[in-house]
Write a structure and sequence with these properties.
- The complex is a heterodimer of chains A (240) and B (247).
- Chain A has one domain.
- With 240 residues, chain A is an all-alpha fold.
- Chain B has 247 residues and is of the alpha+beta class.
- Chain B has two domains: 108 residues, Beta-grasp domain (Ubiquitin-like (UB roll), Roll), CATH 3.10.20; 118 residues, Fumarate Reductase Iron-sulfur Protein, Chain B, domain 2 (Orthogonal Bundle).
- In chain B, the strands form two sheets. Chain B has a five-stranded mixed beta sheet with strand order 2-1-5-3-4. Chain B has a two-stranded antiparallel sheet with strand order 6-7.
- In chain B, helix 5 packs across helix 8.
- The longest helix of chain B is centred in the last third of the chain and has 15 residues.
- The termini of chain B are far apart.
- Classes of the chains: A mainly alpha (240), B alpha+beta (247).
- The interface between A and B is large, with 58 and 71 residues.
């Protein structure tokens, strides 16, 4: 290189490196916590489809979630274990994302004047702000259905099926929900593939294509499955 | 051909840089991109202006010295090195934006020249195998399956140009590391130091200030040697194995 390089002090070589202190370890925690969420949203989406079975079946399903594992587990015991795992996964996922985001910003402090994104799918560019959007939606969603139980129509809040119908009969609540599901779909489209790659499962062209196709299929199934319930409520197919 | 060039000028590592606009005439479409810059520099010399500094060496696509961000793509729109990119790729009257690799681990030294010493230090941390010198052993005594030999050779074509880092939205050097990890990991000679290699190389990578990989894939699209994303999976897998082995 040129003579200027010699003037720069050479950063020392790292000694005593540990795998747990690497960015890749951070990514592995992100992948594992993300896969826990994938399992959760799949089960959640399946449960929501019970709305098509009507008032009694849906509410019976909701009540059953509280009796899983009885009498070995106490009432709602399984639910609380699941919640604890999900909260832990959320803390890990957000912490890893924030750390890597900050790192990426520091890795390129002078930006390009012109930058194309050849080779990137659109969803991959939405991961960070999309993740923030999903987090905000999650807060709203829990206030709406779990913690606060807000019924904008002023109806009953202790009846899961009626709360669902009242909520999605309101057009703007359905819009918020659908936008969030689009974000979730994009997040899963890139995220599921990214998790398999981070876990080192895609070491060939064939496995890479399989992982990418699986990610896309699961994203469509999950985001689509969630979306049809509010859409069918809004158009009166699912009603009280 | 007549072209308008918007080029990053920066007098030294400490100075603030800016984009400057130049007009260059009489460009043949058979010229390489670097020859086009040579023409511009001759014009600048004739006018008594400071020529534009850029890196180049072999000019035949095998040394990894050249590398420019051309219209937002590392090495321009064709899958090759900047020196092998020909002006016929562009059209008469076009405006071309030329920037240096942007990465805080590749500081700009002057104009379009960056210091890629961080790559050398990553290699110093494990991009090698340790063997005693002396007479070469009988080649047939260590057999390598054809598939492994082919894959090792394919990824060993990495020339360390830095296009992967330049293209990566996170400024990560994972494709570069993955290529070396896969190259040595496929061969019997690379096994003894396999765990410590990945841990040390990744630690140096992080220490140099490169970003983390988010598997977007712009690196593989920019790579002039078409190193596939699979090598990053291999890198991650090797780190996970090292983790399990207590490193």
């Amino acid at each position: 290189m040129t003579s200027v390089a010699i003037q720069n002090a050479t950063p020392p070589l790292v000694k005593g490196a540990r795998a747990t202190q690497s960015t890749i370890f951070l990514k592995i925690t992100m992948a594992v916590s993300g896969l826990i969420f994938v399992g959760f949203v799949l089960a959640h989406m399946y449960g929501n489809l019970k709305a098509f079975a009507g008032h009694d079946d849906f509410n019976h399903y909701a009540e059953h979630l509280r009796t899983i594992g009885e009498p070995i587990l106490p009432h709602a015991g399984f639910l609380w274990i699941a919640r604890a795992v999900l909260i832990l996964a959320l803390v890990v996922h957000v912490y890893a994302a924030a750390t890597l985001w900050k790192r990426a910003k520091r890795a390129r402090t002078v930006r390009y004047q012109v930058k194309k994104h050849t080779g990137a799918i659109f969803a991959s560019r939405l991961m960070r702000w999309g993740g923030v959007t999903i987090l905000l939606f999650l807060v709203w969603h829990l206030l709406n259905f779990t913690v606060g139980k807000v019924n904008v129509k002023g109806g009953a809040t202790n009846d899961p099926y009626n709360l669902l119908v009242d909520t999605f009969d309101t057009w703007w609540l359905t819009i918020i929900y659908l936008v969030a599901m689009a974000m979730l779909g994009a997040h899963l489209h890139h995220g599921i593939w990214s998790a398999t790659q981070t876990l080192g499962l895609t070491g060939s062209e064939r496995s890479r294509k399989l992982a990418k196709n699986t990610a896309f299929t699961l994203a469509v199934i999950i985001a689509g499955g969630f979306s049809i319930v509010p859409i069918f409520v809004l158009f009166g197919v699912i009603s009280k | 051909m007549r072209l308008t060039l918007k080029i990053w000028r920066q007098s030294d590592a400490a100075a603030a840089g800016a984009m400057h606009t130049y007009e260059v005439d009489d460009v043949s479409e058979d010229m390489s991109f670097l020859e086009m810059l040579d023409v511009l520099n001759e014009q600048l010399n004739a006018k008594g202006e400071e020529p534009i500094a850029f890196d180049s060496d072999c000019r035949e696509g095998i040394c990894g010295m050249c590398g420019l961000m051309i219209n937002g793509e590392a090495h321009g729109p064709v899958t090759t090195t900047t020196c092998q990119l020909h002006m016929r790729t562009f059209s008469d009257g076009e405006t071309i934006t030329i920037e240096p690799w942007r990465s805080d681990a590749f500081p700009v030294l002057k104009d379009l020249v960056v210091d890629r010493g961080s790559f050398d230090r990553i290699i110093q941390q494990g991009g090698f195998i340790s063997v005693n010198t002396g007479s070469a052993p009988e080649a047939h005594s260590v057999q390598v399956p054809k598939e492994a030999a082919d894959r090792a050779f394919d990824v060993a074509t990495c020339i360390g140009c830095g296009a992967c880092v330049a293209a990566c939205p996170n400024g990560s050097a994972s494709l570069f590391m993955g290529a070396k990890i896969t190259h040595l990991g496929e061969l019997p000679q690379g096994q003894a130091e396999r765990d410590i290699r990945v841990v040390n190389m990744v630690a140096q990578h992080d220490h140099e200030g490169f970003g983390g990989c988010t598997n977007i894939g712009e690196c593989a699209a920019a790579c002039p040697k078409e190193i596939p994303l699979d090598v990053i999976s291999q890198l991650n897998r090797d780190l996970r194995t090292a983790l399990r082995h207590g490193h």
